[in-house]
Amino acid sequence: MVRDLIALCRPKHWLKNAFVFMPVPFAVAAGAHLDPGVFALGLFAFCLAASAVYAFNDARDAERDRLHVRKRHRPVAAGRISQAAAFLLSGVLALVSLAMAYSAAGDGAAMFIVIYFAINVVYSIGGRDVPLLDVFLLSAGFVLRVLFGCALLAVVASNWLLLCSSALALFLSLAKRRSDLVKGADATYRPSLSGYTASYLEQAMSIMAGMCIIAYALYLRDARVFVPGREFASLPFVVFGVLDYLRVAHVRDEGDNPVDLLVRSPSMWLAALGWAVATLWGLSF
Questions:
Q1: How many distinct structural domains can be found in the chain?
Q2: Contact yes or no for 268/262 (Cβ under 8 A)
Q3: Is the pLDDT of residue 216 over 90?
Q4: Residue 265: other Cβ atoms inside 10 A
Q5: CA–CA gap between residue 19 and residue 139 (Å, rounded)
Q6: Using CA atoms, how far apart are residues 208 and 201, in angstroms rounded to an integer?
Q7: Which of 14, 42, 65, 233 could, after both became Cys, cross-link 152 (CB 3.0–4.6 A)?
């Protein structure tokens, strides 16, 4: 029972909350105060919020998940946890996450949690069935993580950071839909797939990949927090990471689960490590 409850919360997917960290090095270099305790509390609050959404979706989609070759093994779909228990867990996690976010950074942080819940409810009750709206709603969850990180630091997100994170989020969401399509997911299970073709999604992914790289480069140029001459030190690692993800999504058709892809890919971890080292080396603290 305990293992099923943990599986329902999907802690492995908390890795997506790395988006909360995106503004941290640049904001701190610009003079923002980072309180480790406050940030850790806020980060855990968003992890619980994400788990609340997973539990809600699994409870609501139990019947449909039983028709899916992989999702039918989830705790609710498999009958190991009742739908009522999953809904109850979702509600408890949602309330706790809101309380923790408010305790960490006040109304601003709590507001982003509420918006995150609202977007996911819209996605769950029908938004996911509408082509393009589904990927925009998925992407909004990642961008909200960036905004939440800014709220924990009491800073305003720059336009370039928002554009870069939005393009990256759309890229990941489009890759997920492409993988669903090429792996033969049934349009009766995922109605939005009837509005896509593989070639369209591949072109859209390429556009978002290019936009992400360009937006990040412009963000580096305008950030004003780097040692002169080191502004673009981290850019090659971003280019490599995006292109490597694009390669894996096309060659191995593994874009449907970015968490599993990142966990299993040594090249992705090396790109992330290289980005972190280059960023810290380039920043003027």
A1: 1
A2: yes
A3: yes
A4: 18
A5: 11
A6: 10
A7: 42
Largest CA distance in the chain: 59
Note the pLDDT of residue 183. 78
Length of the chain: 285
Q: What is the mean pLDDT of residues 98-110?
A: 95
Range of the domain at 44: 2-282
What six digits make up the tokens of 203? 């072109």
- The CATH number linked to 38 is 1.10.600
Give Cα separations from 262 to 13, 16, 19, 213, 258 (angstroms).
Answer: 11, 10, 14, 19, 6
The pTM of the full predicted model, rounded to 2 decimals, is 0.92
8: Cβ–Cβ under 8 A, 6 or more apart, which residues?
51, 54, 55, 58, 74, 75, 76, 81, 86, 89
Q: What is the 3-state secondary structure (H, E, C) of the chain?
A: CHHHHHHHHCHHHHHHHHHHHCCHHHHHHCCCCCCHHHHHHHHHHHHHHHHHHHHHHHHHCHHHHCCCCCHHHCCCCCCCCCHHHHHHHHHHHHHHHHHHHHHHHHHHHHHHHHHHHHHHHHHHHCHHHCCCHHHHHHHHHHHHHHHHHHHHHCCCCCHHHHHHHHHHHHHHHHHHHHHHHHCCCCCCCCHHHHHCCHHHHHHHHHHHHHHHHHHHHHHHHHCCCECCCCCCCCHHHHHHHHHHHHHHHHHCCCCCCHHHHHHHCHHHHHHHHHHHHHHHHHECC
pLDDT averaged over every residue in the chain: 90
- Radius of gyration of the chain from its Cα atoms, rounded to whole angstroms: 19
Rounded CA-CA distance 88/60 in Å is: 12
